[in-house]
Amino acid sequence: MTTKEGPVAAGRLIRIQEAAAEVRLTPRSVRYYEELGLLKPAARSDGDYRLYDDTDVERLRFIKALRDDAGFSLAEIAQMLEDEAARERGHAEYHATTDPVERMRILHDRLARFDHQIEMLRTKIERLQAMVDETEGRRTGTAARINELESSGPESAR
Amino acid sequence: MTTKEGPVAAGRLIRIQEAAAEVRLTPRSVRYYEELGLLKPAARSDGDYRLYDDTDVERLRFIKALRDDAGFSLAEIAQMLEDEAARERGHAEYHATTDPVERMRILHDRLARFDHQIEMLRTKIERLQAMVDETEGRRTGTAARINELESSGPESAR
DNA sequence: CCCAACCTTGCCGTTTACGTGAGAGTTGGG
DNA sequence: CCCAACTCTCACGTAAACGGCAAGGTTGGG
Fold first, then answer.
1. Strand C footprint nucleotides (protein C-beta < 7 Å)
2. Within a domain: residue A4?
3. CA A39, A43, A46, A50: dihedral to nearest 10 degrees?
4. pLDDT, tens digit, for every residue of A18-66?
5. Which of A17, A89, B32, B146 to pair with A59, CA 20 to 30 A apart?
6. Closest among A140, A122, A147, A144 to B118, alpha carbons compared
7. Chain A 24-53 residues whose Cβ is under 7 Å from strand C
8. In B, which residues are within 8 Å of A137 by CB distance?
9. Do B42 and B105 belong to one domain?
């Protein structure tokens, strides 16, 4: 056990603008994602300000990556993340239940979700790779014609 | 040189429904893509029906792949394909010009476009791979905790 | 020539993923 | 306590990517 025990570092709570800026999103988008059930701020201030912790930011980063890089729709992302939010923060719930069977169920559930996410991404990679291969094929054809012209052309160019 | 020279097989001309169906798109989408300048039918019938050949269908297939698999916007796709349509069918234009310099320019242009497309796709693949790695990391962590519980759990389960 | 099935060009409707205020409340430094 | 900056919750506006319908023209088999 290290000195700073617990879930890594649960100290900082930031407001929506800072959280959004850190992952290059707008506050509006973050609120919209919440509206769709993709995440919930770790807490609210007395004045009802949304307060995010680092796991929230990580989640936002992941959401953005799924959207921008993988091109998934927010609906699909919601599917993939499902109520994982509840689980992640359900670290509390996880420790709350004494039932080891329940604990295993949660963990296995999580594992399955990871596997599914990985599979989705791998599938996408394969398709992209297929497109690369195809494009490379066409590129080769064009390159070949360039070579033809470069060896037969110069004679007529003289 | 084989017996059937020329651009592979320029015989069949199909109407929009058949073309769309072949690549699992709707006629509406195909028309919309045309409106955005992503492709132009090889010909029109007397009654102004759009008529597509196999290179058109290939193009549609590519567009759909870029959209569905790679997640590019139609605007980005338009960028990537630019006026490549003019070039592809500019096989005619290509053979029309006697200037070998012009021919080389066209070919090199095409090559550059292919290279750019490949680069875009490769970039996307790398990002997806990074996400896979990250997710696998988290998966491993969860799997580890499962193993912990599976070896320490059964004792309390007795 | 006739008709069902298909196509054409508008044009308005819809969903997704936000942008952009409006009006009111909250925070925090001076 | 005051005020600038930030945030809240509606609520309407918008661009992208089509769906769907209307009114009319085209195709092609019988």
1. 6-9, 16-20, 25-27
2. no
3. -30
4. 999 999 999 999 999 999 999 999 999 999 999 999 999 999 999 999 9
5. B146
6. A140
7. 26, 28-29, 32, 36, 45-49
8. none
9. no
